[in-house]
Design goal:
Elements lengths: L1 E9 L11 E3 L5 E3 L2 E3 L9 E4 L2 E3 L6 E9 L2
Antiparallel strand pairs: 1-7, 2-3, 4-5, 5-6
């Protein structure tokens, strides 16, 4: 049996991004990913959290996707 889970990935490569990874904004600023919140409805993009702030994922060329995962 499988289910869908939200995963944060790099927009161009679909490489998974994890808490603690360094991410770079479209302005060239770097930050450490502290967490995030996946979309809560179809029109939402979700958010990503860095130290002291939250942003749209696109600021860091990221996006939330749903990925199949195993039910434990």
């Amino acid at each position: 049996m499988s289910n869908l889970t939200w995963v944060l990935v790099r927009e161009n490569t679909h490489e998974e991004v994890m808490v603690g990874d360094t991410i770079t904004s479209f302005r060239g600023d770097t930050a450490v990913l502290k967490g995030g919140r996946p979309p809560h409805k179809p029109a939402s993009t979700g958010r990503v959290f860095i130290e002291g702030a939250e942003y749209f994922p696109s600021v860091f060329d990221l996006k939330w996707i749903q990925k199949k995962g195993e039910v434990r």
